Amino acid sequence: MKNERSIFTRSADVRAILDVLALGEPVTVVGVSNFGKSTLLRQMMDEHVAEAYQQRTGHKGLFVYIDCNRMLQMSAQGFYEVILRAVLEALAKLNVHDLHQHIETFYEKVVESQSGFMIPLAFSNAIVALMDSDYVEDLILLLDEFDAVLTELDERVFLNLRAIKDKYSEKLNYVTATLRPLTTLGGGDDLSEFVELFAAQKYWLQPLGTDDATHFASEIFRLANDQLDPPERDYILGQAGGHPGLIQAVAHVVLEIESGAPATYTERALNVAGDVLQRHRLVRSELGKMWKQLLPDERDALILVATRGPAALDEMMLGDLLSRGLLVEERGEIRLFATLLADYARRQGLIRQTNPAGVWVDIDAGTVMVGSDMVEPLTDLEYRLLLLLYGRLDKICDKYQIVEAVWGQEYLGEVDDARIEKLISRLRSKLESDPTHPQLISTVRGRGYKLNSFKHNPSSGDESLEEDIP
User: Fold this and answer.
1) Average pLDDT of the chain?
2) In CA terms, which of 84, 128, 454, 468 is 20 to 30 Å from 360?
3) 8 Å CB contact between 299 and 291
4) Packing angle between helix 11-21 and helix 47-57, nearest 10 degrees?
């Protein structure tokens, strides 16, 4: 079955990026979580895109998609390996055996070498061999999921990429996909040399337009052997806007609720869907990821728009949010791009007003806060564990209570202490500012665990907290 996240297209965005690449300029694609950055970069691998590139430039372009999440380790060696692995995969599809074999020798050196000098040298030699071959005229590296790479790797990696780009000028190009513009990263001189390439070419990815969003929702219904009716379309697009991840989540909720119901029940079913959406795991996850990626002043601005309207913002912030696609303007009206996001922002505003220090769980929305900070989305097991601890705040939860609440009564006697400790560790990694010195979740040796409340704000230094019992 075709993956749902690949059944929408961004043809207009592809054309816009091709316009930049045809000038020999690199471009960075910027957008919030699940707006479709990966879909866009993968779409650049289509043979029709290569044909369009050749028509515009007169050069044959080899487009190579690199998913940085496939890196085997977060290191320069891991980065160079994943690029050359993607190059080899692209060459294998083109049946250029000699060139493939030549590049493979450099790939093996990158993988096998233990030398901090030989690894980048082998990578650079591989790119030189590729660029100097008779087959490759232009090379375009599509670097997806690039955020962690930029912030965690040694900056000389990027200086190397810049040097190779300078050597081949318009024949070598980069397209990156990130949550924020590269120019906002800071960093030292070596990283700045690389980031400078993208200073003039930021492409802000907007939500899907009405036609593309409708097509996406229709395809989800079609794959479920159903048909998208106008009331369902209007409801899904109103709730989700043009956010592909939210469209998918809302469409599935509607399909689940309407399953087997007569067509005359559509309006009633959609009313029920509104209540279900607030608690649905996919919806909570999408909104939580998006909110966590925003800067504090952006969160403040969205809360203001949701509660007081766009007039509450200054022109600079209004322009920034419009460019990011978080706000949209239709028929002269500016609003958050999705009803679900507006509801979420309003709820966050209320939480800030009433949120006590320490851990706070919005059970209806499924979101978790530590102080005023949003916690990244929890897995089902992590969330069940937290709900148990939260419901027994300042009280010890023993092994049997944890197993029954998290895994179920039938698992009593099957889940060992190590498995519980691992789950506690994972939860701490998301809640604690320093998981190696936990302040929120205490271990009471021989008895269990407990979630601590704070009588005062933890940041003030005056906190009521029982330390772990050694």
Assistant:
1) 86
2) 468
3) yes
4) 40
Q: What is the pTM of this model?
A: 0.74
Nearest to 164 by CA among 191, 209, 194: 194
pLDDT the model gives residue 375: 81
For 258-282, write each residue's pLDDT tens digit.
665 555 555 665 666 666 787 777 8
Mean pLDDT of 352-359: 70
How would residue 296 be classed by pLDDT, with cut points 50, 70 and 90?
Answer: confident
For 381, half-sphere exposure in the C-beta direction (CA atoms, 13 angstrom radius) is: 14
Cα–Cα dist 313/319, whole Å: 10
Percent of the chain exceeding pLDDT 70 equals: 89
Per-residue pLDDT of 31-58, as tens digits, reads 988 888 999 999 999 989 999 999 999 9
pLDDT-derived band at 243 (thresholds 50, 70, 90) equals very high
* Secondary structure of the chain as H, E, C letters: CCCHHHCCCCHHHHHHHHHHHCCCCCEEEECCCCCCHHHHHHHCCCHHHHHHHHHHHCCCEEEEEEEHHHCCCCCHHHHHHHHHHHHHHHHHHHCCHHHHHHHHHHHHHHHHCCCCCHHHHHHHHHHHHHHCCCCCCEEEEEEECCHHHHHHCCCHHHHHHHHHHHHHHHHEEEEEEECCCHHHCCCCHHHHHHHHHHCCCEEECCCCCHHHHHHHHHHHHHHCCCCCCHHHHHHHHHHHCCCHHHHHHHHHHHHHHHCCCCHHHHHHHHHHHHHHHCCCHHHHHHHHHHHHHCCHHHHHHHHHHHHHCHHHCCHHHHHHHHHCCCEEEECCEEEECCHHHHHHHHHHHHHHHHCCCCEEEECCCCEEEECCEECCCCCHHHHHHHHHHHHCCCCCECHHHHHHHHCCHHHCCCCCHHHHHHHHHHHHHHHCCCCCCCCCEEEECCCEEEECCCCCCHHHCCCCCCCCEC
